[in-house]
Amino acid sequence: MHHVRPVIATGLAVALTFAPLAGAHAASPAPVEAEHGMVVTTQRLATQAGVDVLKKGGNAIDAAVAVGYTLAVVWPEAGNIGGGGFMTIRTKDGKSTFIDFRERAPLASTKNMYLDAKGNPVKGASTDGYLAVGVPGSVAGFEYAREKYGSLPRKDLMEAAIRYAKDGYVLGQGDVASVKENADWLKRDPSTAKIFLQADGKPHAVGDTFKQPDLAASLAAISEKGPDAFYKGAIADAIVKASAAKGGILKKEDFEQYKVRELEPVKCNYRGYEIISSPPPSSGGVIICEILNVLEGYPLSYLGADSANTVHLMVEAMRYAYVDRNSSLGDPDFVKNPVPHLLDKNYAAEIRAKINPYKAGVSKELMPKGMGESKETTHYSIIDNDGNAVAVTYTLNGSYGAGVVAEGTGILLNNEMDDFTAKPGVPNLYGLVQGEANAIEPKKTPLSSMSPTVVTKDGKPFMVIGSPGGSRIITITLQAILNVIDHGLDIQEAVDAPRIHHQWLPDQIYTEPQALSPDTVKLLVEMGYKVDEGDPAWPVWGKAAGILVGGKDLATIKKGDGARYNGAMDSRVESGLAAGY
Ligand code: DON
User: Fold this and answer.
1) Residue 281 C-alpha to ligand 1 middle, in angstroms?
2) For residues 194 and 355, what is the distance between their CA atoms, to the nearest angstrom?
3) 168-181 burial string, b = 16+ CB within 10 Å, else e?
4) Of 182, 450, 474, best ligand 1 pocket probe by most atoms within 8 Å of the beta carbon
């Protein structure tokens, strides 16, 4: 620490006496306030379904299950029963747990299944069509959560989803925009196209009533018979049949053998706040904690939200943490994850000692041995009247997943297999360059970045947060936390504020339009950074969903006159809604 830049050293001394410097961003609308419960999701009808369950006396886990099924109908780009995800739960008695219902690799999968005879990745093989599909976990996950932590019968939690699939729902601007953006992807499989597009190949219009009768029948069968209807019955049969006919490798045994895992969440302490987040097979919680541990040694609030100094330190912490992510993490049933080491505060101090306060680091120099040189998800946050907090991120991976629906099921299937390392050193859909720990093996789960997170303070729930965004999920969630804790933003401003991202490779800072001023970019370039200014929406900048407890921001919480629950859906998504009661 002897190279510490004067401003940082001064900052350490005075940080506690300074009010946080506000960022340069436009103000956001006020967060949504409620006293008894709060639900924040990417689609208004799913939010309402969750609030209705809470009002009926269901707990946050019941609401999460209802929202999960409803999003599968009203937010088909990511809501799903043909994909998988994670649920982080923190119950009113202070216990926390993590439900892993992510996809598993099919039994017939092999390490080099996406490579040609010369050992090069076959374009599209891990993203398009049936070969890209991992064994789905959502139905098993929702039922596991409901049975163990919920309180209402399955049919009550599936009622809204079945109704919206059967009777339809009126499409809003955001719903139509999602289909429009992905129309070319949806056109490729006739069974998919006929559900989501009109006969002329165009998306439905705002105001149209959109019905999904096949999906309604699948959901009704699950409601009546439970997960066996999906994993052991006609639904699995139809998917296996379509897969076999169209180049896939899914077998009935894949479905029969699917198992949910309940795991210990990852925990770390950041400036007195406890972060509870996703453990492997997600990298999310570990990497958020590793970055926070590094940043804890710097006076970020004094240095200011979007200053070149703060961005420099954030980016360096991200650079080191993403090397660890991409080289050492994988499914805990298959690899030994060095989680205690990555979460160790001494390790964070070692990283800080390597960060040059004046200069950008160089990603190539951190290349681990053996790695060579060479989209769509959704998150929702819920809290109930008892203080049970639930964060769920689940996904089909890319928007509308593999873009395939087995005829008669109405169920879009994921392309999660692309999250594996198809070949060490070769970037995946999100530009991630990964290693052997995440190589494909039968029944293995691909490494994820999904980070459903609950933050507590003094043993009480403080924040529920998460986002989609591929490899950026980690830095999106991180920035929402920093914006609240270090920069004093309210929860809506915290999820709306323009973001930056670095993921080790490619060695560049991605910045959302308006995230940094030209002066700041100039300072960063002088430090040696490549800054990709105004990075367009791909891969996405996310759709964060946050809840803050006790006030809309830290100042209000300290004053003690804030609303109990403060919900904020990212303004980046037009269809979303925060609502409570
Ligand atoms: O699990 C993961 O990390 C990815 N499959 C998430 C994909 C995602 O967030 C796409 N959405 N924008």
Assistant:
1) 13
2) 54
3) bbebbebbbbbbee
4) 450
Report how far apart, in Å, the C-alpha atoms of 33 and of each of 205, 391, 537, 580 are: 32, 18, 30, 7
Beta bridge partners of 460: 457
Residue 246: helix, strand or coil by DSSP? Answer: coil
pTM confidence score = 0.95
209 vs 12 pLDDT, higher one? 209
pLDDT digits (tens, 9 = 90+) for 542-559: 999 999 999 999 999 999
Question: Which one-letter DSSP state was computed for residue 115?
Answer: B
How far apart CA 448 and CA 88 sit, in angstroms, is: 14
Is 47 known to be catalytic?
no
pLDDT at 104 over 50: yes
Where in 492-544 does DSSP place strands (E)?
Answer: 500-501, 509-511, 531-532
**CA 314 to chain CA centroid, nearest Å:** 20
Give Dmax (Cα) for the chain: 68
Q: How far apart are CA 243 and CA 425, in angstroms?
A: 29
CB atoms within 10 A of CB 3: 11
293/268 Cα distance (integer angstroms): 8
Order the strands of the 500-501 sheet from edge to edge: 500-501, 509-511, 531-532
Q: What is the 3-state secondary structure (H, E, C) of 427-481?
A: CCCCCCCCCHHHECCCCCCCCECCCCEEEEECCEEEEEECCCCHHHHHHHHHHHH
Q: Which of 208, 205, 220, 207 is nearest to 166 (CA)?
A: 220
CA distance 189 to 198: 14
Q: Please, which residues bridge with residue 270 across strands?
A: 273
Output the DSSP codes for 285-345. Answer: HHHHHHHHHHHTTS-HHHH-TT-HHHHHHHHHHHHHHHHHHHHH---TTTS---HHHHH-H
CA 416 to centroid of ligand 1, rounded, Å: 8
